Each structure stands twice: as C-alpha cells, then as structure tokens.
Amino acid sequence: MTQEAGELDSLVRKRIRALRVAQGWSLEELAGRAKVSQSTLSRIENGQRRLALDQLVTLARALDTTLDQLVETATDDVVSSPIIDAAHSRMSWPLKAVPGMTVIRQRMTDPPPDNPSRMRAHPGREWLVVLSGTAVLFLGNRRFRIETNQAAEFPTMLPHAIGAEGGPCEVLGIFDRDARRGHQRTEAEARADRPAP
C-alpha cells in the first residue's frame, strides 16, 4: 500500500468513527443500521479489517452521507477571497463543493420597490440572514420584516423584492445558480430602465 493510499485508508476510518460518535451512536447502533456485525465495524474503525467498497457504500448510507464525502481527500483550497462588486456594495464567494451555489454579502440602503410590477420571479431558491439593520422582504402579496440575526428562505418563483428599512442593512445570502442568474438579469433590466444622466 502506498503512503497516499494508507493516509486515505486512515482518514476514512477516522471519518466513520467521527460520524458515528457525532450521531451519538454506539458501535452496536451503527452496525445494526449498516447490517454488519459489531465486531466487523469495530475492526473497520480500528484498521484491523480491510475496507471493502460494498461496506463503505453501506456505511455511508447508514451514516447519512455519500461515498464521495466519505473518501474525499483534504483540499489546499480552504480559504478563498471574495469577488468584490463595489458598484452594488456586494461581495460574493462561489462554493467550490457545491457547483452553482454562491454566498453573497450585500449592503442595502434603499427600501424595496413599492410597485408590485418591480417584483421579480425566476427559478431557484434563496436563503438570507440579516447581519445588521432591518430588511423588508415582499414575497407575493405578503410583507416580512427581517431583523438582525433573523433569516428567510423562499422559492424565487414567488414574486419578490427586498430592501432596507429605517437605514442601511447588511444581508448575507446563499443563492443557487438559477436565483443568481435571475438577479443578474433583474439588475441589468433596472439599469436599462434608469434615465440617462
């Protein structure tokens, strides 16, 4: 066995044990869920039994994870820098592990548009948390006031608009690919609607 394979073998065994302990399960409980004997599971965790692919698949399912996550190797790309969009007071970070997902931090100063025709709908989902200040979210015909440390999650096929209330607010949001594209189109449309200086 090469050193790299030995390190991966050790890492997978440690993950199995760590995931079991994090769930609060005994060897007996995980063995029952995975339909393997308790002694087999103990030997897998302790490195006394060879890791077999079929057992890894079964253990991954029992631990509510995937085989890919169980055998994933460490990456050097742990820290990433934001992409800064000063024109929109926004920073964004693509999530490397989840293609299409982006985290966006944005400072808002304007209230949401009061005209229902300015609300947008597009495929996707959004999740956001207010870091400071108060935000107002119009969602369909409902109005939500979101205070500091409160979060909102919604499907973006509902017409929606968000803005600040009573002063600036800062929002951190997670957008899937469709939601991000929908907002990029909305911003482009808004720029096209503005009168020329």
Features:
3-stranded antiparallel beta sheet; 25% strand; alpha+beta; elongated; 6-stranded antiparallel beta sheet; 197 residues; single chain
What does this structure look like?
The protein is of the alpha+beta class. Helices cover 35% and strands 25% of the residues. The chain is built from 6 helices and 9 strands, in the order H-H-H-H-H-E-E-E-E-E-E-E-E-E-H. It has helices spanning 3-22, 27-34, 38-46, 53-62, 67-71, 177-193; strands spanning 83-85, 90-94, 102-108, 125-132, 135-139, 142-146, 151-155, 160-164, 169-175. The strands form 2 sheets. The chain has a 6-stranded antiparallel β-sheet with strand order 1-2-3-9-4-7. Helix 2 (27-34) crosses helix 3. The longest helix has 20 residues, at 3-22. It is elongated, with a radius of gyration of 24 Å.
Summarize the structure.
By secondary structure, the chain is an alpha+beta fold.
Give the arrangement of secondary structure elements.
Blueprint: H1 3-22, H2 27-34, H3 38-46, H4 53-62, H5 67-71, E1 83-85, E2 90-94, E3 102-108, E4 125-132, E5 135-139, E6 142-146, E7 151-155, E8 160-164, E9 169-175, H6 177-193
Antiparallel strand pairs: 1-2, 2-3, 3-9, 4-7, 4-9, 5-6, 5-8
Helix pairs in contact: 2-3
Structural class: alpha+beta
Kindly state the number of beta strands.
9
SSE pattern: HHHHHEEEEEEEEEH
Instruction: Tell me the distance between the termini.
Output: 69 Å
